[in-house]
Amino acid sequence: MQEIALPADLSQLTNGYTWQRITLGLSQSRTYLLTGASSNLYLKIQSLTEVESLLSEKERLVWLRGKLPVPEVVYFGQDDVNEYMLITEIEGVNASDKSYEWMLPQLMQQLAYGLRAIHQIPVDGCPFDQRLDAKIAEAQSRVDNKLVDEDDFDQLRQGIKAEDLVGDLLRHRPQTEDLVFTHGDYCLPNIILRDGKVHGFIDWGRAGVADRYQDLALAIRSIEYNFGNEHVQTFIHAYGLTELDEAKVHYYQLMDEFF
């Protein structure tokens, strides 16, 4: 049953669907699965006061159409309070689901396959800049405006203040960036599989040109969290790396604390 008042044109599009709130993940938006007779949709609703905008994801999804299997934007709009984005469903089960525990080597292969596909998108003409200059500036802005959730820091950084942590971003900044097109939040809940194979990707709000370790670092952390660090090496080898840059892994996991 519909829970909130929607703009009239959006309300027409969602008429007849059954609503279910989705709580997986740490998105700033409220996300609902809309189940219909012939197809399903997802609706994201986000306050205009949030630090991130659904418009960022909408623009990336439009740019990615035809390049990767991503949701299609059915509707985007806003009123005086919220942004609204209605998108098609990528059918399948996300990669963090425990049903994959019987096929973890194959899952790691698929995660690597999916990430290579993303990183092979040409960056020429890509309008989305997620390189370190931009990311560090945004991280500093979030610290200055007290928008960093220190309670959500990884365990090894619990108890550290964001103002102290941001100095590490400057002191340990990598000297070079191996730039590719990145997802920006390549965590297991954002990779959808169907029949054991990658079927699509969701949650694109932070995508753009960045070092490939932006994705590798968060994928490694997500694999460790969901299935254990003993599976990371399988993923790394399947991706095509013979040696892991541990310093970059640590750095981009540190960067993620601010977002």
Topology:
Elements (H helix, E strand, L loop, with lengths): L7 H7 L3 E5 L7 E6 L4 E8 L6 H11 L8 E6 L3 E7 L4 E2 L9 H16 L12 H13 L17 H10 L7 E4 L8 E4 L2 E5 L6 E4 L1 H15 L4 H8 L6 H11 L3
Helix pairs in contact: 3-7, 4-5, 6-8
Protein name: APH(3') family aminoglycoside O-phosphotransferase
Family: Belongs to the aminoglycoside phosphotransferase family.
Keywords: Antibiotic resistance, ATP-binding, Kinase, Nucleotide-binding, Transferase
Rg value: 19 Å
Number of helical segments? 8
CATH structural class of the largest domain: Alpha Beta
Q: What proportion strand?
A: 15-25%
From the spread of the alpha carbons, the general shape counts as globular
Q: How many separate domains make up the residues?
A: 2
One letter per element, helices H and strands E, the order comes to HEEEHEEEHHHEEEEHHH
Name of the CATH architecture of the largest domain: Alpha-Beta Complex
Strand order across the largest sheet? 1-2-3-5-4
Could you name the ranges where pLDDT drops below 50 across 5 or more consecutive residues? none
Instruction: Indicate the CATH topology of the largest domain.
Output: Aminoglycoside 3'-phosphotransferase, Chain: A, domain 2
User: What profile does the largest beta sheet have?
Assistant: 5 strands, antiparallel
CATH H-tier superfamily of the largest domain: Aminoglycoside phosphotransferase (APH), C-terminal lobe
Work out the helicity level: 25-40%
Mean of residue pLDDT values: 94
Q: Number of DSSP strands?
A: 10
- What structural category characterises the helix and strand content? alpha+beta
The end-to-end span amounts to: 32 Å
